[in-house]
Write a structure and sequence with these properties.
297 residues, 1 helix, Porin, 63% strand, mainly beta
């Protein structure tokens, strides 16, 4: 266990250096938190999370106007996450590594486009809790994320499992009881994107402005085993350029997600359903289903 803790501290230092380099470069990422996830973990614990996610996207919008055609985009992926909690100067901290494996299939009026399947981009997280009060169940956490382009990518394809670029993000989150067994949480994150220098058949350079996401959620603890939750997300920014030519595709997205979780002796099972409420640019997500298994040991 001492070796794991030492490796955690080394990883912390290395990723902070890498993040510091990326955040000064010109870099759609939304970092969804799970209900109750802002609670500070016990030190020297390991976590395994397996998530299966299926999503269906439909109509395409441009500046808020629905475009012609009947596009369909079906995606499915299995996300594998492993992590470890530790302490920094007696403050709780956590790191994890997450990699997705799955596919993206364009259908409907997009059926002539080529889809993709395989490994996606890998994400690293370093989270730190500057404030923790277990008695009042109040927590404030920060997180630094780094996504590296390990995923499948071909510039000849319109749809790829990977993005062929680096993404860095910072997030701050707060959680506290609202009344009785009802908790509330709020989080804000900003993502910066590296350049994709092999975008499209002509291998142009794709760049993207920073993107900002705010999420507000409620979690109701039914008993020691069951809980339910609901989260609202608002995302803005992220306009893209191709060879410095603006594409006028700034995101303004609203969506929601419902959660039901159950704790068992073998781990936690979580079921989630969500969809977009409104989007002004891009393909609207009609539905998203998620099944998660989490084990802390």
């Amino acid at each position: 266990m001492g070796l794991i803790k030492s490796l955690s501290q080394v990883l912390w230092q290395l990723l902070c250096i890498v993040f510091g380099l990326l955040v000064h470069s010109n870099q759609v990422l939304a970092i969804d938190l799970q209900p109750g996830e802002i609670r500070a973990p016990k030190p020297d614990s390991n976590v395994l999370m397996l998530s299966y996610q299926q999503s269906e996207r439909g109509d395409r919008y441009l500046d808020g106007d629905k475009q012609a055609g009947r596009p369909e985009i079906h995606t499915s992926q299995l996300q594998v996450r492993v992590g470890h909690s530790f302490e920094v100067a007696e403050y709780p901290a956590l790191w994890y590594v997450q990699t997705p494996i799955g596919y993206v299939h364009p259908e409907g009026s997009l059926s002539k486009q080529q889809g993709d399947s395989g490994v996606g981009d890998t994400t690293f997280l370093l989270a730190f809790w500057p404030y923790t009060n277990h008695e009042s169940k109040t927590y404030f956490a920060t997180g630094a994320y780094l996504t590296i382009p390990t995923g499948s990518y071909d510039h000849e394809r319109t749809f790829n499992a990977g993005q062929n670029r680096y993404v860095a993000a910072l997030q701050a989150a707060y959680q506290a009881p609202l009344i009785g067994n009802l908790n509330w949480m709020a989080a804000f994150d900003t993502a910066w994107f590296g350049e994709n220098d092999a975008f499209g058949a002509q291998r142009k350079t794709l760049s993207q402005a920073a993107m900002h996401t705010t999420q507000i959620g409620l979690q109701y603890i039914l008993n020691t085993r069951y809980s339910v939750g609901a989260t609202y997300f608002y995302t803005a920014g992220g306009e893209t350029r191709v060879d410095e030519v603006r594409r006028n595709d700034r995101a303004e997205l609203q969506r929601y997600q419902m959660t039901a979780a159950a704790n068992f002796s073998f781990g936690r099972i979580t079921l989630q359903y969500g969809a977009d409420i409104k989007t002004n640019n891009g393909f609207i997500e009609d539905c998203r289903y998620i099944l998660r298994y989490t084990k802390v040991f």
